[in-house]
Design a protein that fits this description.
The complex is a heterodimer of chains A (about 325) and B (about 375). Chain A is built from eleven helices and ten strands. Chain A is an alpha/beta fold and about 325 residues long. Chain A has a single domain, classed as Spore Coat Polysaccharide Biosynthesis Protein SpsA, Chain A, CATH 3.90.550. With about 375 residues, chain B is of the alpha+beta class. In chain B, the strands form four sheets. In chain B, strands 1-2-6-3-7-16-8-15 form an eight-stranded mixed beta sheet, sandwiched between helices. Chain B has a four-stranded antiparallel beta sheet with strand order 4-5-18-17, with no helix packed on it. Chain B has a four-stranded antiparallel beta sheet with strand order 11-12-10-13, with helices on one face. In chain B, a hairpin with a 5-residue loop joins strand 1 and strand 2. Chain B is globular and about 80 Å long. The chains are: A alpha/beta (about 325), B alpha+beta (about 375). Chains A and B meet through helix 3 and helix 4 of A and helix 2 and strand 4 of B.
Chain lengths: ~325, ~375
């Protein structure tokens, strides 16, 4: 990347990175939504989430349906929970669907991506906002922070969430601001093959809002690779200008053991390789040597560029001095 | 017109309330997840203020003590009815305040005492608007701070001392228990006794020097006090803290206690006896024993046959709520001190109160809220005078 591109990237970050507090005025947001004639659906993909689903629905329904009609529908798409997820969701008035009942003529597949994909068929909104159902510190900002850039800016098509580290919480929590799989796998891969996508601060966050016109045109891995594939496919079809991202502060959910992260990384890697290959990304031998990480100062999100050149020595046997010494 | 007019409206109010379930529960969850130990209620009050502002009620502000106050102007507006809920809880800011919602219950620290009470207060302007309830009198909504423990009702006392409103009656809202009907305050004295072993440890007192042992001496002596059966009197030994580990002599130990009695004189007498016990144990052991009394209540209230009380019982009975009559030492006491006819009402049933898995049951809330709205309508209609 040239210096110009680097400064363009920082410019993109500055112009397309929001904080949810910028959209606190829900009255104004609803007015803008109505003026644009948009409809918005919330999709909550679930699998055994009885502990957290009730709270999410109560908050979204109270704040974003009853008080401020930002959402036109709240739908739970379930992968076949064995606990009371569906009952709790119904109690509080969400529309509930079993993923296997949607498009029943297709061979059923099991995974979060399947629920997200089937939501495009089942839900009616012009915009679909996806929020994971396991967030224990849920708040209306998880929805309005993501849909607001789509309402206010027609050119934006895909809004991704990112988070700060949940320092104030005790117990089994993780820092999702820089998740382990993001920092160890996805950011280095993007730095090497899709440097522009490193501008997305948290590529694996499970919360995003997307226009239907985009969703209907991209493929959905049904497992761990869905977020990574979205970024690559939307970038490839519409460019970086289709994206925006919003800081939603803290997100608290259960920590995953490293062994589960291994499975996740393996799934993501498969998705990534498939796409990189299709886009001829491995043909370019002079790949990038800059790792792009993030540092967040008080009000600014800045890329931190680190040059890492992996130099190599040849086998010792090829060195003249060695040959002389050991014959 | 009589109280029966109010009673007839209640079934419709109750059935309409179900429509607003998520509004109330969302307020409860959001309020419940903001920690608010006494003296640190600022964020909770800010949330309450935001709700008042969104409802476009006549006036709302935070007073100099930190209380959140909202005013809904009445059509006549010469007098005011005060609805109060304390904003503080017994949990520290370090406690994980995550609320869990099932189909029937909500669980989390402070959900019953008193996040539910405050959530009701935050939701009332919205309910009045949606249910088209209009009042002749001003309705004053008070989210009171510094109520519990060492807070000693500071918030509501400050409000009552500094407000110009002519308050004709008041209702204190507590999350639990549904059926609670408090209309009197008992005499009370609340304090702590702290025993400290001198820093220079004297090895010649091997096995004997411990703040816990000294406190034990104090406790035994308090327990040996003769308390009168009439007027009814008791000493509640509520908490003991002391020491740091298994094998280190405790340098400090503290007893938290309350003296409660129907008679102010007896409260004062028992207080003096405890002072003597503290002096005696201190001189006997050579340890530093300190008595700190930081809260007092004087007995009082309205009689059982007071029209406000009768009104509340009639409304409860029409809703099949069995009144549980019990004196109170909470905000009701501050209202009684000001000679304001007042009641404390509970909203629902709860479990494991003051534990981190404190919980409330959702379904009875409709009855609890209907009871509160009915009582307000009755007071406003002049049926409780």
């Amino acid at each position: 990347m040239t210096e110009d591109t680097v400064s363009d990237l920082q410019k993109w970050i500055n112009e397309n990175t929001y904080h949810h507090s910028q959209f606190w005025d829900l009255k104004k947001l609803v007015e803008a939504k109505e003026k644009m004639g948009l409809t918005i659906s919330l999709c909550l993909p679930t699998l055994n989430e009885e502990k957290t689903i009730g709270k999410e629905i109560i908050l979204f329904k109270s704040e974003l349906v009853n008080r401020y009609p930002l959402l036109d529908e709240i739908a739970v798409i379930d992968s076949g929970s064995e606990d009371n997820t569906i009952e709790v969701a119904k109690t509080y008035g969400a529309d509930t669907y079993l993923a296997s009942d949607i498009l029943p003529n297709l061979e059923p597949k099991r995974g979060k991506g399947e629920n997200l994909w089937k939501a495009i068929y089942q839900l009616k909104g012009d915009i679909i906002v996806y929020v994971d159902a396991d967030i224990s510190n849920i708040h209306p900002r998880f929805v309005y922070g993501l849909v607001a850039p789509l309402i206010y800016r027609e050119e934006v098509k895909y809004v991704k969430a990112f988070y700060d580290r949940p320092l104030a919480f005790s117990g089994n929590v993780r820092a999702s601001g820089g998740g382990r799989v993001t920092e160890i796998l996805v950011r280095p891969l993007f730095s090497l093959f899709f440097p522009e996508l490193t501008a997305i601060i948290q590529p694996l966050s499970g919360e995003y809002a997307v226009r239907r016109e985009v969703l209907e045109q991209i493929a959905f891995p049904i497992g761990y690779g869905v977020e990574t594939s979205h970024l690559i496919d939307v970038y490839n079809k519409f460019g970086l200008q289709a994206f925006a991202q919003t800081d939603l502060d803290k997100r608290v959910h259960e920590n995953k053991p490293t062994i589960d992260l291994g499975k996740m990384a393996f799934g993501i890697l498969q998705t990534f390789l498939k796409r990189a290959q299709a886009l001829d990304k491995f043909q370019n031998v002079d790949h990038e040597t800059i790792l792009r990480q993030f540092q967040v100062t008080k009000d600014q999100y800045q890329q931190n560029l680190i040059e890492i050149v992996e130099e190599e020595r040849p086998p010792m046997i090829e060195i003249e001095e060695y040959k002389k010494k050991f014959g | 017109m009589s109280i029966n007019t109010v009673i007839k409206k209640l079934p419709e109010i109750k059935s309409n309330l179900k429509e607003f379930r998520e509004i109330l529960l969302a307020n409860l969850v959001m309020i419940g997840e903001i920690p608010a130990p006494s003296f640190e209620e600022e964020r909770k009050i800010k949330f309450l203020m935001d709700r008042f502002t969104e409802s476009a009620i006549s006036e709302s502000n935070i007073d100099d003590c930190g209380n959140g106050v909202g005013l809904i102007k009445g059509s006549v507006g010469k007098k005011a009815i005060l609805v109060n809920a304390h904003a503080d809880t017994v949990f520290s800011a370090k406690t994980d305040h995550t609320m869990q919602v099932t189909a029937d219950t909500i669980t989390g620290p402070g959900v019953a005492d008193n996040s539910l009470g405050l959530a009701v207060l935050a939701t009332l302007p919205y309910l009045f608007e949606q249910l088209e309830l209009k009042f002749k009198n001003d309705i004053l909504l008070l989210g009171g701070v510094q109520s519990l423990g060492r807070g000693n009702l500071e918030g509501i006392r400050f409000f009552l001392d500094n407000s110009d409103f002519d308050i004709k009656a008041a209702i204190c809202v507590e999350g639990v228990e549904l059926g609670r009907l408090s209309y009197t305050s008992i005499g009370m004295l609340r304090g702590e006794i702290t025993c400290r072993v001198p820093e220079e440890y004297d090895w010649s007192r091997f096995g004997d020097a411990s703040a816990i042992l000294t406190l034990n001496e104090v406790i035994n002596k308090i327990n040996d006090m003769r308390l009168p059966k009439r007027p009814r009197t008791s000493v509640v030994m509520g908490s003991v803290h002391g020491g740091t580990s298994f094998n280190t002599i405790a340098k400090e130990a503290t007893l938290g206690f309350e003296v409660r009695s129907e008679s102010e004189e007896v409260v004062n007498d028992v207080g003096k006896t405890i002072e003597n016990i503290v002096t005696e144990v201190s001189s006997k052991t050579g340890d530093d024993v300190e008595l700190d009394i930081f809260a007092r209540r004087t007995p009082g209230g309205i009689p059982f046959e007071h029209p406000l009380n009768e009104c509340a019982r009639t409304i409860m009975s029409s809703l099949d709520i069995e009144p549980r009559l019990a004196p109170s030492t909470s905000e009701l006491a501050a209202l009684i001190d000001k000679k304001i006819p007042a009641l404390t009402l509970g909203i629902t049933n709860g479990d494991r109160i003051h534990k981190t898995d404190e919980s409330i049951v959702i379904e009875p809330i409709y009855n609890g809220l209907t009871q509160l709205l009915g009582t307000l309508i009755a007071i406003d209609g002049g049926y409780c005078e």
